[in-house]
Amino acid sequence: MNNIAKFNRSEKLVQNKIAEMLLISKELFIDKFPSQDFDSYVWNIEHLRNQSSSTTNPNLYFTTYGTLDNLLPKRFVEVVKSWLLLELGDNVKSLVYRLDAARILWEAVKNRRGGNADSFDWSDLTEADISQTEELMKGLWASSTTYKRMTNVMGFVRFLEKRSLIFPTNYKIQTPRVEDTNRFTIEGQENTMSKLPTAQALEGLADIYSTLAVEPSDRLLICLTAIITATGYRITELLTLPLDCEIEETRGGKLRYGLRFYKRKARSSARQFGVV
Q1: Which DSSP helix (H) or strand (E) runs through 43?
Q2: What is the distance in angstroms between the CA of the first residue and the CA of the last residue of the chain?
Q3: C-alpha distances in angstroms, 34 versus 30, 38, 60, 110, 228?
Q4: Which among 121, 95, 106, 96 has a CA at the least distance from the CA of 71?
Q5: Would you kindly state where each structural domain of the chain is located, as residue ranges?
Q6: 71 DSSP 8-state letter
Q7: Residues 28-70: pLDDT tens digits?
């Protein structure tokens, strides 16, 4: 079999696999996105959000990066949509990040083909495209964000490899994981500590709490400040405290008091934090 025949056979196999995957994805889409259109360039994810996960924008735009109306090519975006659906998970906000990663991947694919990617086929995706994606991200984002979005890209690559849509790659993310390099160094720890409130600031808050805040609105604000200072809640966790957040329970024969809250990065819903 000559090379052209082998290539055509490989491309046809990939197209068949994509067609099978799309059938499954579209069935799942009907269940997860009722009354919406799989082929639309906008998906509304408002109904997937809950008190423990929110996004700034409730819409996913399947457009080129930085635009809201320049549509991604169908043969590219259909596979991206399948990836988002088949690996949906519980973290709705990750959909936005994963889609952004895929949009940058498309920019890399297009750039490496001189701006003309009309003939793009998934079997053509190479490590050079992935490397170019990382380079583009470095020009857009800080190292920490680049690393995180590249983990999304590699998750997509593994998704494609598992379904034999691309040839296996051995690409390693070149951007260092900033959190790991700083967390255990003296300089990194000192930098983190410098962002914490000073003892004088905390004493000032204590004075406001104990004596200065008298009006109901002031009491509310200082109580919220006291809770977030004592617990380290994210602001979204503080603002989504349920009305019946105070709880008491016995653990190990000891009565414990705590707050029930919706942990921002939890895979389940309500979590508990013992204050005393």
Answers
A1: strand 42-44
A2: 74
A3: 5, 10, 15, 33, 38
A4: 106
A5: 3-182, 197-232, 239-276
A6: B
A7: 999 999 999 999 999 999 888 754 445 457 899 999 999 999 9
What are the CB-based long-range contacts (under 8 Å, 24+) for 203-209? 205/229
Cross-strand pairs, 102: none
Give the contacts of 110 (CB within 8 A, at least 6 positions apart). 116, 117
What element of type H or E holds 261?
strand 254-262
At 30, give phi and psi (nearest 5°): -60, -35
Q: Which two tokens stand for residue 168?
A: 């296996």
**156 by DSSP, 3-state: which?**
helix
Give residue for tokens 């895979």. 267
Q: In Å, how far are 132, 229, 230, 239, 270 from 128, measured between CA atoms?
A: 6, 47, 49, 45, 44
User: What pTM, to 2 d.p., does this model score?
Assistant: 0.65
Structure tokens at 96: 């936005």
Count of CB atoms within 10 A of residue 161's CB? 14
Containing H/E element for 59?
strand 59-61
Pair of tokens at residue 268: 């389940």
